[in-house]
Amino acid sequence: MSERHWDIEYKTPEQIAKMRVAGLLVAATLEKVREAVAPGVSTADLDALAEETIRAGGGIPSFLGYHGYPASLCTSVNDEVVHAIPNPKAVLREGDVISIDCGAIVDGWHGDSAITVGVGEAPRDVLRMAQVADDAMWAGIAAAARGLRSGRGRLTDISHAIQSSVRKAGRYGIVEGYGGHGIGTEMHQDPFVLNYGRPGKGPLLRPGLCVAIEPMLTRGKPRTVELEDGWTVVTADGSPAVHVEHSIALCDDGVWVLTASDGGRERLGDLVASAARTESPAQA
């Protein structure tokens, strides 16, 4: 697909720095929520903690009120893939696995990230799948950085890298029809980033492009169903699912993982932009 089909909001370095503030707030919020995950805790409890943390940090929950969505988190448990609504009756049990998706707005700029967490002693195969998804996400981020530096990278290089990483790890369903997205002054912008596909297609990977990369995997088939609440997406075959996400920015000299506390330094090394490499611990 040629670049003229996309309406992409390319960001300046100053705007990316503002997005980093939102990204750090999301990272801090997810860390607090992760620590609170335990048997007996409801997804509504986690949601209340997230909203309190976001607002205390000077932000606004991105999800709350978005197209009528009633919460600050998406809390998807076991066979729920994405967009499950927190509920006081949804109490976590030993062995559950929960995907927690969080967004925050600071000074008009969005951050968006997701983690998958086991509740107590969760099944090893599902935790392994969460690690596969995380590794695939980082493979996609690395592909974006390499494509930027080569000057020849295209959007679907990210998609192909995610798919290739998953396929090397085993037999997992890569959820169809859902994926990442551009992010900035709105939570969802062009371009759409699938988690599978051939490389070398779509817009060039160039400085100023900011996207959220978010693999979603299942232990069964990739087909999903949306429930009657109009939000919750579950696996059609009832198999467990996982979901992880980071928001990234392409800078002049590398990638900045806006929602990673270290900017991506540990996983990406010298592929990280100088702005991320020189960020002080106090900033991060």
UniProtKB/TrEMBL annotation:
It comes from the Bacteria. Signal peptide: none annotated. The keyword Coiled coil does not apply. Residues 18-231 form the Peptidase M24 domain. GO terms for biological process: proteolysis. GO terms for cellular component: cytosol. Pfam families: Peptidase_M24. It is an enzyme of class 3 (hydrolase). Substrate binds at H83, H188. The keyword Metal-binding applies. Its cofactor is Co(2+); Zn(2+); Mn(2+); Fe(2+). InterPro entries: Creatinase/aminopeptidase-like, Pept_M24, Pept_M24_MAP, Pept_M24A_MAP1. GO terms for molecular function: initiator methionyl aminopeptidase activity; metal ion binding; metalloaminopeptidase activity. Its EC number is 3.4.11.18. A divalent metal cation 1 binds at D101, D112, E245. It catalyses: Release of N-terminal amino acids, preferentially methionine, from peptides and arylamides. Keywords: Aminopeptidase, Hydrolase, Metal-binding, Protease. A divalent metal cation 2 binds at D112, H181, E214, E245. Binds 2 divalent metal cations per subunit. Has a high-affinity and a low affinity metal-binding site. The true nature of the physiological cofactor is under debate. The enzyme is active with cobalt, zinc, manganese or divalent iron ions. Most likely, methionine aminopeptidases function as mononuclear Fe(2+)-metalloproteases under physiological conditions, and the catalytically relevant metal-binding site has been assigned to the histidine-containing high-affinity site. NCBIfam families: met_pdase_I. Removes the N-terminal methionine from nascent proteins. The N-terminal methionine is often cleaved when the second residue in the primary sequence is small and uncharged (Met-Ala-, Cys, Gly, Pro, Ser, Thr, or Val). Requires deformylation of the N(alpha)-formylated initiator methionine before it can be hydrolyzed. Belongs to the peptidase M24A family. Methionine aminopeptidase type 1 subfamily. Monomer. This is Methionine aminopeptidase. It comes from Planosporangium mesophilum.
